[in-house]
Amino acid sequence: MRVLVVMDPIERINPEGDTTLVLVEEMHRRGHTVEICGAEDLELERGEAAAVVSSVSEVDRAAFPCIKLEGGQWRPLGDYDALFMRKDPPFDQAYYFYTLILEQARGKTLLVNDPRGLREANEKLYIFNFPSLIPPTRVTRSHVRLRDFLESQGGQMIVKPLDQCGGGGVFHVRTDDRNTNSILETVSDNQTQLVMAQAYLPKVREGDKRILILDGEPIGCVLRVPRDDETRSNLHVGGRATHTELTARDKEIVAAIAPKLRADGLYFVGIDVIGGMLTEVNVTSPTGIQEIDRLDGVHLESRVIDWLETRVKA
After folding, report:
1. Is 260 a catalytic residue?
2. What is the fold, at CATH topology level, of the domain defined by 203-282?
3. HSE-CB of 59 using CA atoms within 13 angstroms
4. N or C: which end of the chain has fewer CB within 10 A?
């Protein structure tokens, strides 16, 4: 196969936690031709989507950067058997335009994940497709409405922006905190930006479960436990990865959302579940493979690339 991976700069890769790295490593190990570009390298010319790309010549997690690249050439996206869109959020106007460029490669290469699905599936708002699975949640920019929601939830809530990842801009808000007004002003940019408010789920202290889903099927999970001095459980802000298992409730959630994920072309997805409630659906660059590999003694990247090979042949 010839595969293009659209990703953030390789200099930013965390060799011990980056999922894109192990996907690239596995494809390269199997002898596939793997090329890399940044989203900013995507182009359109006479209706043809293309990119300035570099070839992966070596992957060494102990080196810096851990992916060695060669060359740099212009190549139509239709030359590839598959394309991984793995750029991290924010999903801003530039990201939106990148997905429109990828549209021009539709039918010419396998797009993982589908650009239409990426546009439809805001990682915070997508959960509203499954209202019976989610905690009490409100999206507004009004401080009055946010304050009303806070009171309705017993004086505690989580607020977060709609376009960030990795716990960016997430706050635990309490009525007895003198910083509450300042927090609401900050996260809503003084009522100019929409904010998601969710009921605070005490079960988060036991962990936020990340479940990886491949073509509608769960392939692994990891529990991310927050530090004692931290609200957020995200691994890159100090959350601790611990072994966990899929529960009957987890399987129920996956089964409920799988048909829509498939319909939207969202093949590789990570969902977040706290206390049996769906809180986020991560579709841009879901992570967790390396942590699950270490905890469970598996190689999920092999399963993903097995699926990719089968899908390309089909």
Report:
1. no
2. D-amino Acid Aminotransferase; Chain A, domain 1 (3.30.470)
3. 23
4. C
